[in-house]
Records
---
Amino acid sequence: METEQQHSLAPRLITLIIDRNDTERLEDLLREKLVRFHFMFKGMGTASSEIKKAFGLSGTEKTVCVCVEPAVKAGYLMRAAMERLELTRPGNGIAFTIPVSGISGSVFKTLSEELVQLKERLAEWMDIETEKAREEARYDLVAAIVNQGYNEKVMDVAHSLGARGGTIIQARRSGLEDAIKFFGVTLQAEKEIVAILVHHHQKKELMQMLGKACGAGTEAQGIVISLPVETCAGISDETE
């Protein structure tokens, strides 16, 4: 019984990446499902014109939405998004969930009262769920944080392994001023985060290739991280 409760209540990070034109529909869905803790970002798609044409993509401007919900509610939200935003149709967007290994106390106040009461036990449950996702992950989210202007180099590497596209989020480096002065290194402030969903078995090779082509020792001054993806919608394989 506790295992079922653990799986249903442990928080999940839900990410939805959709065409900018569908943002209003997504906001309506979030209001309807009472999703209070969410953030919206502007992103850019990286798919080539040939892929856009083949998959019916309407443009490269994307909306990236990130929210945190208990696993059971994340499942409802994923299913609703698949139906409302038609994520089963190629090119309409993707959505995926990632187990959360830690969360601030203030976030609990925006979630259900049941989670607040189980706050202490949830810390242990989140560790268990995160480890389980690492072992069972079918997809991984690989994120390369590089200097502005190097997103194409990142995607060239990803395309060589069969990735169809990614999403670019504009960012800015913060802090590290003392480290820059100490090491005498100039770090570009403007950054780009290139997020790519890949099969789990491709993650290691992609990260190694990105490290060589766009890592800290290159002009891109990149940092590459990966996260296990628990569930995914809107992405399909030619073999399926």
Note: Residues 2-136 form a domain with the Alpha-Beta Plaits fold (CATH 3.30.70.120).
---
Amino acid sequence: MVDGYEAYDAVCQSQSIDRLGCWAHARRKFIEAQRAQPKGKVGKPDQALSWINRLYGIERAVRDASAEARYAARQAQAVPTLDKLRQWMQKHAPNTVPGTALGKALTYLSNQWPRLARYVEDGRYPIDNNRAENAIRPFVVGRKNWLFSQSTRGVKSSANLYSLISSAKAHGHDPHAYLRYVFEQIPAAETVEDFEALLPENFKRGD
């Protein structure tokens, strides 16, 4: 699940990965359009945000539900809402100047629609990738100061390390304790199973 950057397509196709669109990015476009409106005016950006907020309301209601229950709720509630939003988009997009903030938001929504609508196909899919973005934000901010990845190998090493740290956090581990354990155990790892046992989701040692 990514934003509308088209370069992702090549990676998805080469790796046979299904690509999903992030609703947070689509919503952000309409928030920008809303801010561009005359103060106190309610217009089309507000209408779009109302539909999108309904989708998020459905997600909040099933946040702690099983994937099966989430799928059922999406089919019953989100699919009709998506249909109405799509009809609204198709009505207004042709009559909106593309270069305006609203035009850009509608163009983005139209171009990304098949990817955005796919999250309702599986209860395991998230509605957006905010969780991943929040996890990498410290590194995105910090890299402006660190600037130590001066080669492709350095970038790959950094990405691997960042992934391990964020995954350890996501599984409730202390990253320092987890990495210390990995560095202590990895010299003895020989098989694929040995290395998989060191992944954050398989880390059993108490923090």
Note: The chain has two domains: 8-121, 130-202.
